[in-house]
Structures are given as structure tokens and as C-alpha cells.
Amino acid sequence: MNSTLVAGVPATGAEPPAPARTPTDWRGAKMQGSIRRRYAAERRFRLLGLGAVLLSAGFLVFLLWTMVGNGARGFTQTELRLDVDFPASTLMIDPAALAGPGKDAALAGADIEGATTAAATAAFGTDGERLLSDGAWLTVRDAIAADPTILRRKAQIWVPAATNIDLAAKGDAAPEDEAAYARLDKAGVTKTGLNLTFLKNADSTDPTLVGVWGALKGSLLTMFVTIVLAFPVGVLSALYLEEYAPRNRWTDLIEVSINNLAAVPSIIFGLLGLAVFLNFMDMPRSAPIVGGLTLALMTMPVIVIAGRNAIKSVPPSIRDAALGIGASRVQVVFHHVLPLALPGILTGTIIGMARALGETAPLLMIGMRAFIASPPGGLTEPATVLPVQIFLWSDEVSRGFVEKTSAAIIVLLVFLMLMNGIAIYLRNRFERRW
Amino acid sequence: MSGLALLLLILGLGIVAWGTARAKASRFVPVGGQRAHSRPNYHGWYVALWAAVPALIFLVVWSSVAPGLVMGTVLDTPAAAALPAPGMERSAILAEVRGLADGTVAAAFNPVSNTLAPAYKAASTRYAIIGTLAAVLLAFAGGAWAFTRLTPDFRARTRVERVVMGALLIASLIAILTTLGIVASLLFESLRFFAKVNPLEFLFGLTWSPQTAIRADQVGSSGAFGAVPLFWGTIFIGAIIAMIVAIPLGLMSAIYLTQYAKPTTRKWMKPILEILAGVPTVVYGYFAALTIAPALRTFAVSIGITSASSESALAAGLVMGVMIIPFVSSMADDSIAAVPQSMRDGSLAMGATTSETIRKVLVPAALPGVVGGVLLAVSRAIGETMIVVMAAGLAANLTLNPFASVTTVTTQIVQLLTGDQEFDSAKTLAAFALGLVLFLVTLALNIVALRVVKKYREAYE
Lengths: 434, 461
Description:
Chain A is mainly alpha-helical.
């Protein structure tokens, strides 16, 4: 039927005859080859995409694996059993003096360090002192303070080993240290346990004595200042821009500023903090309050942008209903819009805070890279924060710091994951689709 | 009384004022059938604001004025005559006096300090008492005055809401203030730098060696501030190497996850890729310095590049590229999703395979959005600090060799501002000039990128 119809179309004589058209031979070798090529290209392209995803994810896995592999060892510590013969030692402390209020003075006055060295020499040979951590005598002191009666007898005290021995125990040191460790291990005076020092100390020059608590406390104080300042200001400006701001040049200026601030490199905020807070306002260097102020300026735009999106997603019918039953405009926003937008705002805030917690560069600018050997006591005392501590340890030459740096990174990543986990939970639990 | 206790006292007074005023307002009897204009809560807030806000403002002003007053009193005492003339020594002694009085310094180094410390202590106690009394009085006066104004037809709500609106406006002005602060501080310090160093030399000079001489006769420390090697290093790492990594990986990941992957794969892989953007940069820096850089150096030596440095542009650029992948990927994701479905359907209906549709229809249509995303990624990469500080090195080389060590603008800012130096030297001020350049470039990139993205979105709406 069709062929007759096509054949029946009258040809207009004036035009040149159309070139003869042969139907495409789909089953011919040429077309089949072309289709095969196109399908092969399709598969290649698809594999390329899969490869890109897997490569990116693989990099993440490799990064985390390296950090965990290096850092897990930072949480353990090798200890040596030190036999101290207190009655025979040069230590002149009256056990009775340790019971009263003069305890600290009595301990400080005694040469515990010397006694520890002597005990190490007696136990491990002439350079026995080098097998112990520089802080071994602190452990001895704590043992005496905990139980003064040991001063009247021979005592066995587990003290931290020196970095070389610690690394040798973990199978990562020079041959002579490995040999020294093997000798000690054979004598049965070594054990490996959880490194509590790492969780409760601050910075130190000896890798066996360092801890993250000082930096962690600095981070927490800094984050406290940041959230106290950035959250109210961020939420209030988001409310103003979304609910009240008249459309004029000033509002445009505010919006442009906020969008730009969100994209300004973080180090610029550090320069601002240095020029304004330290040099102009003369605030204390290295203090959590200055760090918190600087990070608050950086986090505020993030909160404003997240807050505006959350407020925008509250449907206008809520506002209309509230206005309709006689609420004022302030009541509409604070009684109805804000509570409904709050989960979204909180999610954005936590994400902004997580970014601030991992931030290093601006805090270097305001001097939070000092060597701080004790945890900060307040907002104006010198402090450092976890990322800066990681940066400082990564610069240390001593090999013992490698595992400590990675361990500190694990602590930081755990905190970040917790924060992001809370944000995801909040989003899934409370976010409403209208 | 310490500042915190005083603050809590004022806030406590505010709460008391709130409760009293609220109680008074809730006893208002309707007059002639007409109820009170505002609910008791608003009366409470009105009085509480009057009690707390003026006192707090006074405290802020007082805390900036009081140290000067205390110091003035101390300098008026006869013992102060022994102080040396204004200068370093005098301020050192006065700082010590302050420390002695606070108890933060245990023993004085300077004998004059010991004589002045009691006077300082007395003066600071006196002014602290004056400040406390004045703040408390102000709180009571404000609260009492506001309390007397409460009547059933007093418009408390209107007034409280006016304060709330004021607070909202002030909060949103902080963004402008921050921007102004950044521009002013960068500009001010940069101008001081350009008074010492010719701006043309800074922008076009080829040698960077910021050590200025302490003595005029020192050798090799004349100080050269030609920033071109820094700009090149920044572009080389952030805009070239990092983008060579990030653009293909980010774009292909976005294409695979939006066009090919099953919904469950997409649901899991997208957040995993986004973790890459959430890892702190100091972790990337440490990873680059500890693992990637030594491996690259071994590799370079094994292929015959003996000059390979252990801090290389390639190590920093590769790791930075990985960090940028999620940015490129999510921007590409958005732009591809914005291409109308009809274009995709049309191409598929003509018999094109999925990959042909993507390569010849979707990506060209989404290109402006992708380019905008890449510009944003570049702006983020050149402002990134920790990776380059830890992995790229400090040598200001003008080189095309990716295994050589180069330095960047951000590295040098950190380098110039950490360590001991006086604040007025050209070396320190140079950091602000570099910061200004960085700020302007990232600003321009962001504005252009946002404009491109916006134009493109409009085209399909």
C-alpha cells in the first residue's frame, strides 16, 4: 500500500531529479560496525565516570586509612617497669610530711628526678636513663603522692619509655633501638597500654609527654565564643533580610556583603583579626576570645545564608494565617516563622561551626601558634586550638611526633564527624517538606 | 567585683524587673470594658529592657575608659615621679605594676613597680566600686522609670517591637561593618607598604626576598618585593595543577552520579564525595607533606629528574585538586540538572546513545554553569592556605617544573606574619599588600562566576 502511495506522488518536471536514495542497511557490516563502536564508546564513557567516582572515593579512603594507620599507635604507649629502692635512694622525704598540707612543697623540694635517674641506671645499666621518657620522674612523683608508704620499701613503678623505645616497640625504629627494646622485652619489664597522657596533657617538647587536651580545651573555648556571637547575629540578620528588609540600596549592599564574605579566603579574616582586634583594639594575643571573634565573623555569613534558605522554605500561608488572627509582624516571625525554620537554621549553624573548628590559617595570623604547655584557664589566656596544634606538631623533627600528629588528626576528625552526624540527624528528624 | 559577676547581676536585675512588671500588668483591671493594650509579657519586657540595656551600655563604655582613669590616678601619685620618661622602659614598668596588682606577676623586676603597685591596686578597686555602683544605680533608675509608666493603655508591645526591629537592623549591619573592616585594614596597611615600596615593583618585580636589613651594611638582605613569583606559584598550584585534577574528576563524577548511577548508589556516593570538602585543610596539608610529597619525589628521581624537591608544586596541587573535587562536582551537578529535560529527550529520541547525549547536548548546554563553578573553585583554591604552607615550600621560584618547590601568596602571608618582627617594617606590611591582592582577585572571580551562572540560569527559565 505504502509503496504505491509514494510512487504515486507526481514529480514536478521542472526540478532536477532527486538523487537515488538507498534505504539504510542496518544489518550491513558498515552500520553494525558503527553501532558497535558507538556502544563501545558508551561503555568506555560510563566506565570513565565510574572510575572518576571510585578514584575520588578511593583517595578519601586512602587518606583516612593513612591517618588511622599512623595515628592509632599514638593512642598507645610503651611502659617500662622501674624498680626503685626508696630506702637506699638519695631521696630525703619524710613520709609523714606527705600526709599534711605541706605535701606539694615536700614533693617539689625532693630530688625525685635524680632518684629516678639513679634507679634507671641501677636497673638498666649505665645509660638506663636514656631508655626512660623525660617525664618518667613525674610518674614516680605521682606514685609517691598517691601512696607515701612506698618510700619505706622497694617499689615497682611503671614509667613511660623514651620515644625511641616506644617506636621500637611499635616496630618502627633504628636497629640499635630495636635491639635495646628486644633486650628489655626479654627481661619482661615492658608493657604497652592506653596512652592516658595523650588525652589529658597539653603541648610538650617530648613526644611521650604531649597531649591533646590543652588544644582541645582551647578549641572548645574558641568555639564557645564563636557560637555565642555568630548564632544570634546570623539568625537576626537572616530574619531581617528575609522578613522585614525593604527593597532598597542598603538592603542590596547588605546582601552583597554577606555573599562576598562567605567567599572571602579565610586567611583574610586572620589579617582582619590581626589588624583590628590585636593592633587596633589591643586585645591579648593567642587568646580564645580573639580567635572566637575572628571565626565568628567568618561563620556568620554561613549561618545567614543557611538561615535565609530555611526561613524562605516556611510557606507564606503560615504568615498569612497568623496575620489574619491579629498577630503583629514581630509576633508572626518570632512565634511562628522562627520555630518552624529553626531546624534548618541549626543544621546550617552546625555545618558552619564544623568548618570553623577545622580552620587553621586565620588563627595562625592572630598568634595562636605559640607553645602552650598547660591547658588555658579562661577566654583571655594564651591558648592554641586543635588544627593549629596539628600544624605545629607536623613541623617537629622528632619522629615520635608523626604518630601523635596523626592521633590528633583522628581526634579532630571524630569531633567533625560527630557534628556533621548531629546536623544530618537534625535534618532528617525535623525538616518538614511543605 | 569581676566583670562576669557584674554582668550576671545586671541580667538578674533585668529578670527581676521583668517579673515585677509582668505581675503589675497582669493585675490591670479592664476599664469600661476596654482591656489593656499590651499583654503582661510585653510590659515585663519593656521594663526589663530599660533596666538592663542602659546599664550594659554604660558597662561597655566604662570598661574602655576605666583603665585610663586608673593609670591617670597612679601617675598623679608622688611615687610616679621616679618613673623614666615615656618610652619602652616606662611602659614595661607600668605593665609590671598592673601585673603585680592583679597578682599575675609574683615579684617585681623593677623596684619602682613595688612602690606603685599599692597605689594602682587602690585606684583600680576605687574605680571598680564606682563603676559597679553606677551600673547598678542606672539599672534601678531605668527600671523604676519604666515601671512608673505602666498603665493599662500604655503601648508596651509597640515599644518592645521597635527595640526588636532595631536589634535586627544592627545585626544585619555587622556584615557591612566586617566588609568595611576588611577593606579598610587591608587598604590602610597596604598604603603604608606602598609608601616604602613602589607598587609597580611589587606587582611586576621578578625577585621576592623580603628580608630587610637591620643594619645598613648587611649583605644580601636589601629586601626585594617583586611578587610575580608568588603570583605564578599561586596560579600554577591553584589554577593549573589543582584544576587538572579537579575538573575531569569532578565533572565525570557529577555526570556518572546524575546520569548513570542507580538512586541508591547516588544516595551513598554523593555524601561520601562531599566528605572530601569537609576534611580540614590542615589534614590535607599534613597528608600532602607526609605521604604524597615524598612519594612524588621518589617517582621523579626514578624517572631521572634529580632536582626534584621534597616540597613540590605537584604535591600541593594534587591534594588541593582532590579537595576541590566536590565543589566542581556539585556545581556541575546543578548546571546539568538545570538543562531542560526536553533537550535530553530530543537527543535520545534521535537515536543518540546516553554518552553522545551527554557529550554533545547536556555538557555544551550546561557549559556556562560549569565554567562559573570552575571559577568559584579557582577562587577557593588560590585562597587556600594550609596545604600550600605545609607542602609547597618557601622558595620563590619562577618555574614550570611541577617537581620544583614554589611558593604562593598565602604561604608568604603566613611566613611574613608569624615569627618575631616589629609591626612597621616593610616585611610585615607586605603581608597586607599580598592580602589585598588576594582579596581583590577572589572578589573579582566570585563576581564574574556568579554573573555567568545567573545569566545562564535565566537563559533556561
